[in-house]
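Next up, a specimen:

>
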Amino acid sequence: MNRESRERSPYGDAAGVVTRCLAALVDVLVVAGIGLAAQFAYAAIRLLVTGPPFRMPDLADWLTGVTGWILAVLYLAACWATTGGTVGDRLMGLRVTGRGGRLLGVPRALLRAVLCLVFPVGLFWIPFSRRRASLQDVAVATSVRYHRF
């Protein structure tokens, strides 16, 4: 059995760093859009309850950061645990699974999401990895492969 056939998986080829970075960029935009929509919803509810004028909430910078971080963790974990892919993953044709090809459970998806947000430069381990794994993939035993949804 040669090296190429050993590294190929029935689930598709392992994704590279450029594709995964582009998917992450799309996900950043999606999370920002979700956060903005939540602020608009809050302002609209406040308008209905208290009356005019319509005002967007003015949150402290630290609260905006913490809320955005929590929103990103929940978005990533929910997508990976339920469908195996975020909006960015689907757009780029990627699927995040365990090494055996099964979807991640909620605890593993949450841990992977936290690691991706705390240490995003872990993606740059991919070119040096034999199986094209980021440091997050190594730590949580996951795999990101090209997939046709």
Summary: The first helix runs from residue 3 to 7. The first strand starts at residue 94 and ends at 98.
